[in-house]
């Protein structure tokens, strides 16, 4: 009986050591990631200071309906982020990190789809303008 207990305790010690090693590796990776992000952020700030305000910002004239739709999108995004932050309290940091990664991948996919939609609408608008111009000219 004591041999079984000794084996179980030895297994628990081995598991604890493995977990500690994994945690230290995760900490190292997170530290390197944070350092990289800080470096990227500092470079971005330096580049943003070197670029004039007219070069770094694009001005768009939108209709009131479009402005309203954009404000609704931004409000819904804020609500989504707030609700997801409240749910993360019950999860470990690794699970939270994976959830954020999944969310970022999903948002990236959505952005790519929106860019493709924007390009398609732009092409349709250009085609319509060309057709209108060809119909107007004799």
What are the SSEs and their pairings?
Layout: H1 2-50, H2 53-56, H3 64-87, H4 93-136
How would you describe the overall organization of this protein?
The protein is mostly helical and 138 residues long. The protein has a domain at 1-59. The protein is 88% helix and 0% strand. The protein has helices spanning 2-50, 53-56, 64-87, 93-136. The longest helix has 49 residues, at 2-50. The protein is elongated and about 100 Å long. The N and C termini lie far apart (101 Å). The model has no long low-confidence stretch (mean pLDDT 79).
How does the helix and strand content classify structurally?
mainly alpha
Low-pLDDT parts are none
Count of DSSP E strands?
Answer: 0
- Report the major sheet: none
| Topology order in helix (H) and strand (E) letters | HHHH
> What shape does the CA trace take?
elongated
DSSP strand content:
under 5%
Share of helix among residues? over 70%
Count of DSSP H/I helices: 4
Gyration radius (Cα, Å) is 26 Å
Mean pLDDT: 79
Distance between the termini: 101 Å
Which short descriptors sum up this protein?
mainly alpha; 138 residues; 4 helices
Summarize the structure.
This protein is 88% helix and 0% strand. The chain is mainly alpha-helical and 138 residues long.
């Amino acid at each position: 009986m004591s041999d079984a207990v000794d084996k179980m305790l030895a297994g628990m010690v081995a598991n604890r050591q493995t977990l500690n090693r994994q945690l230290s590796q995760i900490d190292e990776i997170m530290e390197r990631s944070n350092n990289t992000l800080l470096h990227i952020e500092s470079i971005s700030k330096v580049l943003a200071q070197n670029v004039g305000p007219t070069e770094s910002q694009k001005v768009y004239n939108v209709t009131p309906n479009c402005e309203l739709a954009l404000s609704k999108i931004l409000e819904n995004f804020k609500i989504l982020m707030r609700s997801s932050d409240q749910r993360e309290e019950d999860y470990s940091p690794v699970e939270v990190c994976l959830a954020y990664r999944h969310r970022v991948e999903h948002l990236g996919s959505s952005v790519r789809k929106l860019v493709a939609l924007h390009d398609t609408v732009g092409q349709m608008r250009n085609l319509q303008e060309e057709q209108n111009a060809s119909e107007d000219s004799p």
